[in-house]
Amino acid sequence: MAISGWPSEQRPRERLLAGEAARLSDAELLAVLLRTGLRGRSAVELGSELLAEYGGLRGLLAARQEQALARPGLGPARWALLQASVELSRRSLREELRTRDSLQSPRAVRDFLALWLRDRRFEVFAGLFLDSQNRLIASEELFRGTLTQTAVYPREVARRALELNCAGIILAHNHPSGVAEPSAADRMLTDALRSALRPLDIPVLDHLIVAGNHCFSFSEAGLI
User: Fold this and answer.
1) Does residue 204 sit within a domain?
2) Please, where are the H alpha helices in the chain?
3) Which of 61, 86, 127, 180: disulfide with 211, CB 3.0–4.6 Å?
4) Is residue 212 domain-shared with residue 104, that is, in the same domain?
5) Are residues 123 and 178 in the same domain?
6) 139-162: per-residue pLDDT in tens?
7) Using CA of residue 76, residue 77, residue 82, residue 88, what is the dihedral sign?
8) pTM of the full predicted structure?
9) Are 122 and 178 members of one domain?
């Protein structure tokens, strides 16, 4: 039965409007975005099928566009809505970092980096450039590499830090392998970047490695 035929108190959108968003299942929240299902299947049933097919919300939202659009029930308009919801979440977290001390908001930093870097299929090296109160000035992808490595140039990182007139920097990159532990090359790179930025009086406050659902902090591990 189509959702329009359900009692109003059971419809996902009406429940969300009534303040029950946190109580909705993933399939019900997807149904709000999808709006309609397919013939013989409600939007909630379609949402459940998509979640099962892609292994959950993360798998669905990280799917390749061409793969998703080839699936019945996901056209360009619906796919665009799903991607827009992810981008809005990223921007909301970025706004939070612009108004709060990042060192006092480690969870917000990790959540932002996870949404930004976690599901990339290649390595990305990024920087969070901070002001004197550790508030975010800019978050930028600095270098992009392959599945296993990225060429990072400390001089270019230093140049960009000066251009932005930042007072500190948090480095970040992802490991598509899913293993968050730093390699010997990661440790050497961190030392090289600290050395390049030290004469400029710009401290490297942390280096975070995002891998799947894990995030390794050089600072927490005592490596910075």
Assistant:
1) yes
2) 12-17, 26-34, 43-54, 57-61, 65-69, 76-99, 106-117, 154-163, 184-197
3) 180
4) yes
5) yes
6) 999 998 765 666 889 999 999 999
7) positive
8) 0.80
9) yes
105, 188: one domain: yes
Is the CA virtual torsion 181, 95, 146, 187 positive or negative?
negative
d(CA 1, CA 45): 10
Nearest to 100 by CA among 112, 84, 117: 112
Whole-number Å distance between alpha carbons of 220 and 170: 13
Residues 35-67 have pLDDT tens digits of 888 888 888 999 999 999 989 988 888 888 888
DSSP readout, 71-98?
STT--HHHHHHHHHHHHHHHHHHHHHHH
Q: How far apart are CA 116 and CA 114, in angstroms?
A: 5
Query: Could you tell me the two tokens for 94?
Result: 């970025």
> Same domain for 63 and 104?
no
pLDDT of residue 3: 75
3 neighbors 31 (Cβ within 8 angstroms): yes
- Residue 130, phi then psi, degrees to nearest 5: -115, 155
The answer to whether 68 and 47 have CB atoms below 8 angstroms apart is no
In Å, how far from its chain's centre is CA 72? 27
Q: Which domain holds residue 121?
A: 100-217
CA 32 to CA 101: how far, in whole Å? 35
Residue 39 to residues 42, 73, 92, Cα–Cα distance (Å): 8, 10, 36
Token pair listed for 59? 């798998």
User: Residue 66: phi, psi to the nearest 5?
Assistant: -65, -35
